[in-house]
Amino acid sequence: MTSSVYTPDEAEGARWSLPQPARTPAREFGRIFVKAFHSLAVLIFAAAAVYLSYCGITGVRSALMVWALVAVGVEALIYLGFGAKCPLTMLARWLGDEGGHDYLFEWLLGTARIGLVSRSLAALAGVGVILIIIGSVTPLLR
């Protein structure tokens, strides 16, 4: 039995390939688990991005804001560490998923617009962080 090799096309910018595992119930379970976990991770990142923007606009400073900053920072490091590609998307594709994206936004936006999610959430988190920095520095300048 030969296994196919998953090689993303050059348009994706990836330069790696892995032998794809055989189709089994365990692989299907893994694919579903990865996509469900991916949905949870996206929801956490979205909540963190929205909360950081809220904190930036209202001036709220709390332990939850610190956790949101940590969540966004970890997400950014992981994303950049994998060459600006989501490792969960890559893993889901390796397990045989067509798009590899999370269930929630794939269902809400469809596969054609799914790329807007990460860009929009990253921009929202970035705006929140910038507003927090401005709000924290402004009183020091007076």
Molecular structure report:
The chain is 67% helix and 3% strand. With 142 residues, it is mostly helical. The chain has one domain (24-141). The protein has a two-stranded antiparallel ribbon. It is elongated, with a radius of gyration of 18 Å. Residues 1-6 have low confidence and may be disordered.
Sheet of most strands: 2 strands, antiparallel
Q: Low-confidence runs (pLDDT<50, min 5 residues)?
A: 1-6
Question: Tally of extended strands?
Answer: 2
Beta-strand fraction estimate = under 5%
Q: Tell the overall outline.
A: elongated
**Overall tally of domains:** 1
Helices and strands in order:
Elements: E1 5-6, E2 18-19, H1 25-58, H2 63-81, H3 87-94, H4 103-109, H5 115-141
Antiparallel strand pairs: 1-2
How would you briefly describe this protein structure?
67% of the residues lie in helices and 3% in strands. It has 142 residues and is mainly α.
Primary descriptors:
142 residues, elongated, 5 helices, 67% helix, disordered N terminus
